[in-house]
Amino acid sequence: MTPLTLLMLGAAVFFVAHVFLLFTSFGKSGYNGKRYLWSHLTLWICGTLLFTGVSVYAGTGESPIADAFDTRVKQTLIPVVILALSAVAHIIVRLFVMPKYQGR
Question: What's the pLDDT tens digit per position in 8-36?
Fold first, then answer.
């Protein structure tokens, strides 16, 4: 198993953890702020692992997917998309989900 494979596998694991933590942050028992924070942190860790993988392995021929991120601009899109995804999710939760839990 190559280091790139390990980085991508780690990113996938953190993304799955992100989705799990996000969906379990809101339940019948109410809003769990600590779990919601950890869902954001796992998404950012996922993005960091992806960014590291493509930054190190772009243009090496190790992976056609990593090779697609052959410029710094393309590589910078990863953290930008991760931060945008996190911000959009936070806005959706604040505007549409939290009012349902505050009314209880």
Answer: 999 999 999 999 998 898 888 888 889 99
On the 0-12 / 13-18 / 19+ scale of CB atoms within 10 A, 21 is: buried
Is the distance from CB of 7 to CB of 69 less than 8 angstroms? no
Structural tokens at position 75: 């590589």
Q: Please write down the long-range contacts of 25-34, taking CB distance under 8 Å and 24 or more positions apart.
A: 26/97, 26/101, 30/101, 30/104, 31/98, 31/101
- Kindly state the DSSP code that residue 26 receives in the 8-state scheme: E
Kindly give the residue spans of alpha helices, DSSP state H, lying in 1-104: 3-24, 33-57, 64-67, 72-92, 98-102
18 contacts 42 by C-beta, under 8 angstroms: yes
| Per-residue pLDDT tens digits for 29-54 | 888 889 999 999 999 999 999 999 99
Predicted confidence (pLDDT) at residue 104 exceeds the cutoff of 80: no
